[in-house]
């Protein structure tokens, strides 16, 4: 039984390959296993407003975010009618630049929006940012206060992280120390000022720190500014701090829009420039998210998937990929059950026709066409034609019957009328021919047996092929065909009894 | 309604899947199939091996030759037309007599000259052959079947089907046509299957439509009385067919001509499973016994002797 083992091994390999490819796609490429699965796409829109100065050309540039660990930017878009738009990278920071020779009077609006999806497996290379920290002139008592505060906290802390945490805690506490209170009242009127002072204080100790402007990904936020944050280096890794909340352990809900000390917005030739953000959550099918992600990821596995095909071809393949499922049904029905069909794969072709026509109209059509075909065929047999001519005549009659039924149901206002043309007419013509021969030689019983067998198998194949879950899986994971192949090969070595044989040999068991 | 598969297995009943994989797939080499599937080749091969077959009257390969078909049958009263590559008895036309330019079938139905022409044309077009490929119409002399079967068959030639496994006659049955089977010897069409004792050639049990019966439904003849003449000659003939075709799982259909004795009518590379029902016996046990000794016996005589002794 060496070949039996080989087959077992071969099919197990096929099934394993297919399942592991599927698992990889589900786990790392976030392909959904079921159609209903959805994912969130975050849309963040920056709205830049400004007023024009008379007779001046405008040049507005804004720092743009780049993808970060756990967040993938899948789409970037600027809508800025009549403005020249370019992208440039300055000191590792991507910037959007809008320009215009002559700006109309009144408030001007530019939009820039990005779409993000979360992906906990996504990692990017860290980029170095320019960070300059200016020293600031301050009165002696303030410097004194700051030094004592720093000294105090430094002694209580262990490293840059705990130091920063304690510092932020000190300024946020309800009863801050005298020194902290003094600094707070003088230099921390806004959050941005607070952040900048904190950075200076941390820098004073000698820890590496940098400026961050970030957005919390929460749905339905309008007209918000970037939340001022800071990052502190600890053991080659940057840690994000919210100046009001302290260390942020989980940054998956935060988009860092701006890093480093560059200005978020630089505007020349305009006044009152301002940028506000809005955050919205869109729910989209997980597959389209996984796919749009792919554009950025350039995953070779996906690059070779069916999604690279044009839409029309994709739709064809949606149908084609179902054929193996139909074939599997035929294999199971014939090998395990032992149903007689006329023509091995006629049921699969019929099932494909049913997909186009809907099941009930399809079955009705099949019965009508075959019955009428048999009647016509029995007349043609009197004409004493050669076989090929006879089948061709049946073929033409089949087309005629289809046209007649289509016109009739159109007149009656039945929707499915036109779709019946999907019937594989050559197969039907041959089936009619063979059935009429069987009728003559083996009698009507055999014809009905084979005809209903074919119909039954094709109905089952139809259900397998129209099952939403199955068709979704075959199209999104075409590698599942390897598993189907493995299964069919395995079934192909089944040498046990068929269900029909248990009935057939019933009398022999007493 | 349904048999327990474990009981079937215990009885050694061969199933279709098992037959296809472990017998046909294993013992019947693809390249030998044409010897069996093509009746014209079978006949030519049989002549070389001195195996008696119904006499070939002629064959027609091209549509243009059809009008000459009468030259093959001008001296014959009855004849048979078959497709060289037909299966399951499909496309076989038996004519027992000619009367007033009409051709009479065993059922008494008469066919015209053009009916025959159409039938030949259908054969050539491949209507009865596997996959619809072009075929050859073969003309055979009608077998005058032996009187030993008088009353056992209705409007048809009774034949003996022997399953030859690795050269050993393993199981045998007679197929008797009935009015229901329309003169045909196919069990699923209502022909009677009679299990035949390999040792003696006598009837063991009989079935019609998978149900045991005692008498022929049309003639009421007691089927127990059936005894196949020339039995040992038949067994030798079957075993020789294995030598000729090298098919390890072979069904040989034998008819008995009044004058010429047993003739090989047809060989089958995919013999069915109904023979088990007719014998009320599973085939696997016998195949197992043959497997045990298959390397011991070389000659046809030894193999036949083993079968007679064992089964």
What percent of residues of chain A adopt helix (DSSP H or I)? 40-55%
Tally of helical runs of chain B? 10
Arithmetic mean of pLDDT of chain B: 90
Number of DSSP strands of chain B? 14
How does this structure look, described?
- The complex is a heterodimer of chains A (510) and B (311).
- With 510 residues, chain A is α+β, with helices and mostly antiparallel strands.
- Chain A has 3 domains: 40-118, no CATH class; 140-256, no CATH class; 315-477, no CATH class.
- Helices cover 49% and strands 22% of the residues of chain A.
- Chain A contains 17 helices and 14 strands.
- In chain A, the strands form 3 sheets. In chain A, strands 3-6-1-14-8 form a 5-stranded antiparallel beta sheet, covered by helices on one side. In chain A, strands 11-10-9-7-12 form a 5-stranded antiparallel beta sheet, with helices on one face.
- In chain A, helix 9 (323-337) packs across helix 14 (444-466), helix 11 crosses helix 13 and helix 13 packs antiparallel against helix 14 (444-466).
- The model of chain A has no long low-confidence stretch (mean pLDDT 82).
- Chain B is of the alpha+beta class and 311 residues long.
- Chain B has helices at residues 5-10, 16-27, 33-37, 39-48, 70-73, 113-125, 231-245, 274-279, 284-293, 300-310, and strands at 56-60, 79-83, 93-95, 97-99, 102-104, 110-111, 137-141, 159-165, 168-176, 192-196, 203-208, 211-213, 249-257, 261-268.
- In chain B, the strands form 3 sheets. Chain B has a 7-stranded antiparallel beta sheet with strand order 12-11-10-9-8-13-14.
- The longest helix of chain B has 15 residues, at 231-245.
- The radius of gyration of chain B is 19 Å and the shape is globular.
- In chain B, 46% of the residues are buried.
- The model of chain B has no long low-confidence stretch (mean pLDDT 90).
- Chain A: This is 7TM_transglutaminase domain-containing protein.
- Chain A: The chain crosses the membrane at residues 6-24, 319-339, 359-380, 387-408, 414-432, 480-500.
């Amino acid at each position: 039984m060496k070949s039996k083992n080989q087959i077992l091994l071969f099919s197990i390999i096929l099934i394993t390959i297919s399942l592991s490819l599927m698992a990889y796609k589900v786990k790392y490429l976030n392909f959904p296993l079921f159609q209903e699965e959805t994912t969130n796409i975050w849309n963040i829109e920056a709205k830049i407003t400004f007023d024009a100065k008379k007779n001046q050309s405008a040049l507005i540039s804004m720092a743009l975010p780049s993808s970060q660990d756990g967040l993938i930017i899948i789409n970037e878009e600027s809508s800025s009618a009549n403005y020249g738009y370019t992208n440039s990278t300055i000191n590792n920071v991507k910037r959007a630049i809008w320009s215009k020779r002559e700006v109309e009077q009144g408030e001007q609006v530019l939009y820039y929006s990005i779409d993000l999806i979360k992906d906990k497996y996504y990692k990017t290379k860290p980029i170095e940012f320019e960070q300059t920290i200016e020293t600031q002139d301050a009165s002696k008592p303030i410097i004194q206060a700051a030094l004592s505060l720093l000294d105090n906290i430094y002694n209580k802390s262990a490293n840059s992280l705990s130091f920063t945490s304690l510092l932020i805690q000190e300024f946020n506490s309800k009863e801050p120390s005298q020194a902290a209170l003094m600094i707070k009242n003088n230099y921390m009127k806004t959050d941005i000022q607070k952040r900048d002072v904190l950075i200076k204080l941390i820098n004073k100790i000698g820890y590496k720190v940098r400026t961050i402007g970030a957005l919390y990904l929460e749905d339905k936020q309008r007209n918000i500014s970037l939340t001022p944050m800071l990052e502190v280096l600890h053991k080659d890794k940057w840690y994000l701090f919210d100046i009001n909340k302290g260390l942020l352990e989980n940054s998956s809900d935060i988009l860092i829009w701006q890093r480093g000390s560059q200005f978020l917005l630089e505007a020349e030739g305009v006044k009152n420039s301002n940028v506000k953000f809005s955050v919205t959550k869109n729910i989209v099918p997980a597959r389209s998210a996984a796919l749009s992600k792919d554009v950025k990821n350039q995953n070779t596995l996906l690059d070779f998937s069916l999604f690279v095909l044009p839409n029309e071809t994709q739709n064809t393949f949606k149908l084609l990929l179902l054929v193996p499922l139909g074939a599997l049904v035929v294999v199971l029905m014939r090998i395990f059950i032992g149903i007689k069909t006329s023509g091995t794969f006629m049921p699969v072709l019929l099932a494909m026709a049913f997909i186009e026509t809907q099941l009930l109209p399809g079955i009705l059509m099949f019965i009508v066409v075959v019955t009428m075909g048999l009647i016509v065929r029995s007349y043609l047999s009197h004409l004493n034609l050669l076989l090929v001519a006879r089948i061709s005549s049946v073929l033409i009659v089949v087309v005629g019957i289809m046209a007649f039924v289509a016109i009739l149901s159109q007149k009656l206002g039945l929707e499915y009328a036109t779709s019946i043309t999907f019937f594989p007419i050559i197969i039907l013509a041959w089936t009619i021919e063979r059935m009429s021969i069987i009728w003559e030689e083996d009698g009507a019983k055999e014809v009905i047996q084979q005809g209903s067998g074919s119909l039954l198998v094709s109905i089952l194949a139809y259900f397998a092929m129209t099952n939403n879950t199955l068709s979704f899986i075959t199209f999104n994971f075409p590698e599942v065909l390897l598993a189907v192949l493995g299964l069919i090969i395995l079934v192909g070595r089944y040498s046990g009894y068929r269900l029909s044989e248990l009935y057939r040999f019933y009398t022999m068991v007493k | 309604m349904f048999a327990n598969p474990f009981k079937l297995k215990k009885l050694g009943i061969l199933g279709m899947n098992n037959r296809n994989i472990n017998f046909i797939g294993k013992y019947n080499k693809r390249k030998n199939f044409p010897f069996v599937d093509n009746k014209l080749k079978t006949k030519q091969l049989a002549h070389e091996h001195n195996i008696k077959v119904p006499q070939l009257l002629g064959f027609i390969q091209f549509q243009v030759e059809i009008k000459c078909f009468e030259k093959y049958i001008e001296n014959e009263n009855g004849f048979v037309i078959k497709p060289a590559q037909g299966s399951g008895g499909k496309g076989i036309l038996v004519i027992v007599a000619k009367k007033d330019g009409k051709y009479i079938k065993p059922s008494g139905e008469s066919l015209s000259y053009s009916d025959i022409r159409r039938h030949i044309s259908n054969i050539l077009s491949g209507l009865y052959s596997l996959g619809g490929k072009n075929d050859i119409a073969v003309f055979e002399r009608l077998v005058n079947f032996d009187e030993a079967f008088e009353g056992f068959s209705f409007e048809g030639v009774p034949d003996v089907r022997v399953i030859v496994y690795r050269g050993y006659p393993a199981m045998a049955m007679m197929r008797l046509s009935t009015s229901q089977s329309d003169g045909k010897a196919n069990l699923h069409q209502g022909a009677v299957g009679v299990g035949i004792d390999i040792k003696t050639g006598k009837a063991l049990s009989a079935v019609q439509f998978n149900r045991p019966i005692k008498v022929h439904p049309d003639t009421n003849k007691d089927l127990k009385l059936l005894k196949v003449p020339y039995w040992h000659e038949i067994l030798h003939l079957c075993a020789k067919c294995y030598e000729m075709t090298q098919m390890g799982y072979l069904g040989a259909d034998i008819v008995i001509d009044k004058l010429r004795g047993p003739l090989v009518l047809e060989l089958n590379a995919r013999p069915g499973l109904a023979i088990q029902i007719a014998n009320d016996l599973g085939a696997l046990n016998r195949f197992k016994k043959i497997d045990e000794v298959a390397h011991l016996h070389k000659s046809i005589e030894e193999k036949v002797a083993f079968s007679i002794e064992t089964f």
